[in-house]
Amino acid sequence: MADTRSEEKPDFARGIPSGDLPEGAMVEGTLGADKVLLLRRDGAVRAIGARCTHLGAPLAKGIVAGGEVRCPWHHARFSLETGEAVGAPAFDPLPCYRAEERDGRITVTGRREAAARPPGRSPGKVVVIGGGAGGHACAEWLARAGHGAAVTLVSDDPDPPYDRTFCSKQYLSGKAKREATLLAPEGFYQGEGPRLLRDRAVSLDLGAEEVVTAGGERLPYDALVIATGAAPLRPDVPGFDRPAVHTLRSLADADALIAAAGTARKVAVVGASFIGLEVAAAMVARERSVTVVAPDAVPLAKVLGEAVGRFVQGLHEEKGVAFRLGREVTGFDGEALTLDDGSRIAADLVVLGTGVAPRTDLAEAAGLTLADEDEGGGIAVDGNLAASAPGIYAVGDVAAYQDPRSGRRLRVEHWVHAQRQGQHVARALLGATAPFAETPFFWSGHYGTSLRYVGHAASAEDARIEGDVGKGDFAVTYREDGRDAALATCKRDQRSLEVEAAWDREGAAAG
Predict the structure, then answer these.
(1) Continuous segment of H or E residues that includes residue 291
(2) Distance (Å, whole) CA 387 – CA 199
(3) How far is CA 467 from CA 309, 486, 496, in A?
(4) How far, in Å, CA of 128 to CA of 114, rounded?
(5) What is the rounded CA–CA span in Å between residue 36 and residue 156?
(6) How far from the centroid of its chain's Cα atoms is residue 384's Cα?
(7) Higher-scoring residue by pLDDT: 202, 116
(8) Which residues 6+ apart lie within 8 Å of 144 measured at CB?
(9) Residue 298 and residue 309 in contact, taking contact as beta carbons nearer than 8 Å
């Protein structure tokens, strides 16, 4: 039998030989009950918390770039000097420790206080519309800088801001409790923190610089951040208005789907999108029979290419998921889906993974400039995510921004990217002037196999494969206009981080 005991970590109170930490190395150890990461960069030794504050990834398996340590799982970034979480999806800082090197030995002697970050200039009154990824990240960063009381976050979601990725992953599959989805501790949106207004913004008065809500409030602003996100598309198919047909966008949607799965036996997922396939995996975890129906010949081929798409399909088929590909749904009678070839698929629960559309109604009614449909729609913003009217910004799924690497306008539907855009706008409101230049990133999980994707490519036709896709150990580079545009990896986390960091630098230089 294999030895399953974890590798013993060094006790940093006793210390380690200096030679065990050469230039560029990272070593995880302990200080009492704390997990501590020792690093040597430019000759200096630093000690910080060893586990990402997002979901606990071991940072020793990440990389250091530009004075920041990057998490291997979901690419959060932390300052080596202060421990601050400077890049989502992590918000909480890492603890910092005192490290001493003397007589050829390195020891850690205790925690140290990190230097306080200057608060920056006052942002004035800030109204954020939308409590999703970008909206919360913007409010959280302003609160972190000491300006939380200046922020009002308007959200028509009945729940306080939560991690939407849990809706199709951990929470839906039963691996996480509902409270684990929340993005902020209880009380964050009370007292001296940002105000959470559970209401719906119905109009923007650009002349008066006010947001008008359904509840009759008029909210004056010096800066307005539109983070309204996107809404699921429900195809105009007979029977798709039945109660057994669900979309998945919100935590309430996930609640409804979990409740429906409690009595359902046969689940049909319409659409082989990332969300659709993650729902399929969650329903398998709940021991339901699952069939995926999609017009695509290969799942995810448009984004990842046929080889990776077939690999992902195989992961699902190994778990019993059936696929009906190259088929359209023509109706649902409450008991079965009818397909365009006349065949029927028994289903007492249907989940639509058929895409989303940006929620631009407020912006359009106010006369803000929208992006063309061939650019993905959304609100047109410049390199600083500023919209066409003074003092207004847009972030997340609704923002069509100027990508400095490609020189094109992009609208990207990624959770972490929306968070980072929200953080960028917060920094801009505090006085930062650099344009937004962060590389898009997302991850997708399928039965313990994780895919990571950095960059953006309009198609997967021009792809260069390294490794063995069939064995789930690969890196696929997607090229566009003669340049590397995106990278998909499996079991090559450091490669993904290194490419993302390089493209971040390239984007910053181009911006």
Answers:
(1) strand 289-294
(2) 23
(3) 15, 16, 14
(4) 29
(5) 41
(6) 20
(7) 202
(8) 91, 117
(9) yes
Burial letters 265-283, b for 16+ CB under 10 A, else e? ebbbbbbbbbbbbbbbbbb
Q: Is the pLDDT of residue 360 over 50?
A: yes
Contact 495, 467 (CB under 8 A): no
Count Cα neighbours of 489 within 13 Å in the Cβ-side half-sphere. 20
Burial of residue 109 (number of CB atoms within 10 Å: 0-12, 13-18, 19+): middle
Q: Residues with Cβ < 8 Å from 359, sequence gap 6 or more?
A: 228, 229, 230, 231, 397, 398
Joined together, the tokens standing for residue 345 give 């698929």
Q: Residue 211 and residue 392: Cα distance in Å, rounded?
A: 11
3: CB partners within 8 A, 6+ apart: none
Dist. CA 69–CA 106, nearest whole Å: 20
How far apart, in whole angstroms, are the C-alpha atoms of residue 237 and residue 249?
20
- Work out the end-to-end distance of the chain between its first and last CA atoms, rounded to an integer number of angstroms: 55
Tokens representing 104 are 């050829």
pLDDT of residue 118: 74
d(CA 203, CA 119): 32
Answer yes or no: is pLDDT of 3 > 50. Answer: no
pLDDT in tens, 217-266: 999 999 999 999 999 999 999 999 999 999 999 999 999 999 999 999 99
Cα–Cα distance for residue pair 74/23, rounded to 1 Å: 25
Q: What angle do CA 489, 492, 493 make, to 5 degrees?
A: 95
Strand ranges (DSSP E) for 42-81?
A: 44-49, 63-65, 68-70, 77-79
**pLDDT > 90? residue 133:** yes
Whether cis (ω within 30° of 0) applies to the bond prior to 185 is no
φ and ψ of 252, to 5 deg: -65, -35
What HEC string does 170-224 produce?
Answer: HHHHCCCCHHHHECCCCCCCCCCCCEEEECCEEEEECCCCEEEECCCCEEECCEE
